[in-house]
Design goal:
Elements (H helix, E strand, L loop, with lengths): L1 H54 L1 H26 L4 H49 L5 H13 L2 H4 L1 E3 L5 E3 L6 H19 L1 H14 L2 H9 L4 H43 L4 H11 L5 H18 L2 H31 L3 H15 L1 H20 L4 H7 L2
Antiparallel strand pairs: 1-2
Helix pairs in contact: 2-3, 2-7, 2-14, 3-7, 3-11, 8-9, 9-10, 9-12, 9-14, 10-11, 11-12, 13-14, 14-15
Length: 392
């Protein structure tokens, strides 16, 4: 009986081991499937969030602008409150001063802008005449090679070259450039849409400033009854205030630097009203990229009208683009990364993403939003790895 029993146990042992291995393999496969399913779900959630932010941009963008502007202006309203000026009155007076200053600036520049717009057709005719003259002048080596290749391929008509009896190449005049007109109209449309949202931003900013710390207290209570969590929430909110103010300080310093360098460069090139151009460049550069393009085009046109030659005009526009590129792509990005604790490469990628998501508004909102995300990730234990990824 004992021998028979031992033989039975020996026969059962391999079967038990096989079952254990099978169960382990099945469990591992199940965990892998669950992990893959979780990753897929998170990807779908992320795509849905991006789509929702894009579709709801008319609501989200003014809301974010109002919150950020209220963060920036809150120290001034707090200072007025310490002088026994009610927050409702202080917020209203502060916004009235800002709106009045912007309106005065627009009104003071409207005359020069109107005069420049009146000169644009004349400048366009001069520019086109210079381009046609340069293009139809004495043929260069590249034009000879191109003409020979066109003759060999029998495609002279497609290249716009018509052979005459004297052998002189007659080049057809180029058609008017339509993409430039469409680009300018599109930028003016974006600017008009952005200006149409200004009243919403002002009203939201006023209510946030007038309410004081009401929403902050509600947000601190929302995190739960734990005293530790409340302290962490207060610390994060204070850090967010500091980051937004630092970002605005960096923008002010960098734009002032662009204005001064532009004034010096235009003065050296002999452009009239170089000081006005420098001040305008520093102001318009608060609008990333669009302000730079506007100043480059306007200064190039002014240089062409003044010097009546294309190379000096290109030198004027190119000098400003060089200054704006050096400060904007290197100096400003580095300073923003240093103040906000965000990696400059990550910051640049985020700016590209928000520019694609919300256009010009995304360029304005991208840097402060990533700074806020970095502060929140550093303050929450479960998100510290994300904060380290965003950091330097």
């Amino acid at each position: 009986m004992n021998a028979s029993h031992d033989k039975t146990e020996v026969e059962k042992a391999p079967t038990s081991n096989v079952d254990v291995v099978a169960v382990a393999v099945e469990t591992t496969s199940g965990i892998t499937r669950i992990a893959r399913t979780g990753v897929g779900v998170w990807i779908l959630v992320l795509l849905a969030l991006v789509a929702a932010l894009h579709l709801a941009r008319e609501l989200v963008v003014p809301l974010l602008f109002g919150i950020l502007v209220s963060y920036a202006l809150r120290p001034v309203v707090d200072w007025l409150d310490r002088w026994h000026i009610p927050r409702v009155v202080g917020a209203g007076c502060l916004l009235a001063v800002l709106v009045g200053g912007v309106s005065w600036l627009v009104f003071s520049l409207s005359g020069d802008a109107a005069a420049m717009i009146e000169k644009l057709p004349d400048a366009a005719r001069k520019l086109r005449h210079s381009l046609v003259t340069a293009y139809t002048g004495s043929p260069t080596a590249l034009q000879h090679v191109k003409e020979a290749a066109d003759e060999l391929q029998g495609a002279a008509a497609d290249a716009g070259l018509k052979s005459t009896g004297s052998g002189t190449a007659v080049i057809e005049k180029p058609e008017p450039i339509a993409w430039l007109r469409n680009f300018m109209l599109a930028q003016f449309a974006l600017l008009a849409a952005f200006a149409a949202q200004a009243p919403i931003v002002l009203l939201l900013t006023y209510f946030l400033l007038a309410s004081g710390t009401h929403f902050r207290r509600k947000l601190v209570q929302f995190v739960g009854p734990s005293l530790t969590r409340k302290k962490d929430a207060v610390r994060i909110l204070e850090e967010v205030d500091a980051q937004v103010q630092r970002y605005l300080l960096v923008m002010l310093i960098s734009n002032t630097l662009v204005g001064v360098l532009t004034w010096l460069a235009f003065e050296m090139l002999g452009l009239e009203h170089a000081g006005i151009w420098g001040a305008t460049a520093g102001i318009l550069r608060f609008i990333p990229y669009l302000g730079t393009v506007t100043i480059a085009l306007a200064s190039g046109v002014a240089g062409f009208l003044q010097f009546e030659s294309l190379p000096p005009a290109l030198g004027v526009a190119g000098s400003f683009l060089l200054i704006a590129s050096a400060v904007g792509m290197v100096f400003t990005t580095w300073l923003q990364g240093r103040f906000a604790g965000v990696n400059p490469a990550v910051l640049f990628i985020v700016l590209l993403f928000f520019a694609w998501l919300w256009g010009m508004a995304g360029l304005l909102l991208g840097a402060p939003l990533i700074a806020i995300v970095k502060v929140v990730c550093d303050g929450v234990e479960s998100l510290k790895r994300v904060g380290e990824l965003l950091g330097r």
